[in-house]
């Protein structure tokens, strides 16, 4: 255009492009879908050993999990599992250097944000924290063809504890497939000696306070 320098034309062109970009961004902000906010209001319903899929349990149910005062397995005494073979290396030498699979199903009604804490203990004659370690923990759907929900193995601390948070976005049964491994069992475990404890806390979306809790005890036969 006559009387307008090349620099001025370039400035006008750049300014126009910036205006178009600004309008485009504004329209996107207006029309983009709002993020879906999950409200974690579910509760614990039950816990039991996996019956579907290709899970193999080295444990049996000792005390069926019961709910009392909104607590699953209150004081650990009402949700107990035992090894199929006692951790007594004198009587059963093959319990040393062995994997032990514990596929515990946790059923929830509704979406939940779960604080999950599992830890080996030294509380009796047998010393699980010294003689065993947590090899892996993975969460699957509980069905004929289980689907991996989350691999929590990297969250294991010092090979004897996991303390983490997992979000389960819908109702259902979830297998927490816990794999333990024994080293040398010494001293031998007596029947009922504790091996592993699991603490579960569910939290609601707004306040973050506990809305449900659970306790599971694993012991030697």
The stretches of 5 or more residues where confidence is low (pLDDT under 50) are: none
Please identify, by name, the CATH architecture of the largest domain: Sandwich
Which geometry do the CA atoms define? Answer: globular
Number of helices: 2
Percent of residues in β-strands: 35-45%
> By helix and strand content, what is the structural category?
mainly beta
Mean pLDDT: 88
Characterize the largest beta sheet: strand count, sense, and whether it forms a barrel. 9 strands, mixed
Helix fraction by DSSP (H/I, runs of at least 4): 10-25%
Structure, briefly:
This protein has helices spanning 6-31, 128-131; strands spanning 43-49, 59-63, 67-68, 71-72, 80-83, 99-109, 112-120, 132-141, 148-151, 156-157, 161-168, 172-182, 194-203, 210-219. It has 221 residues and is mostly beta strands.
Provide tags for this entry.
mainly beta, 2 helices, globular, nine-stranded mixed beta sheet, 2 domains, 221 residues, Immunoglobulin-like, single chain
List the helices and strands and how they pair.
Blueprint: H1 6-31, E1 43-49, E2 59-63, E3 67-68, E4 71-72, E5 80-83, E6 99-109, E7 112-120, H2 128-131, E8 132-141, E9 148-151, E10 156-157, E11 161-168, E12 172-182, E13 194-203, E14 210-219
Parallel strand pairs: 4-14, 5-14
Antiparallel strand pairs: 1-6, 2-5, 3-4, 6-12, 7-11, 7-13, 8-9, 8-12, 10-11, 13-14
Outline the structure in words.
With 221 residues, the chain is mostly beta strands. It folds into two domains: 1-32; 43-219, Immunoglobulins (Immunoglobulin-like), CATH 2.60.40.10. It is built from two helices and 14 strands. It has helices at residues 6-31, 128-131; strands spanning 43-49, 59-63, 67-68, 71-72, 80-83, 99-109, 112-120, 132-141, 148-151, 156-157, 161-168, 172-182, 194-203, 210-219. Strands 2, 3, 4, 5, 7, 10, 11, 13 and 14 form a nine-stranded mixed β-sheet that branches. β13 (194-203) and β14 (210-219) form a beta hairpin. It is globular, with a radius of gyration of 27 Å. The termini are far apart.
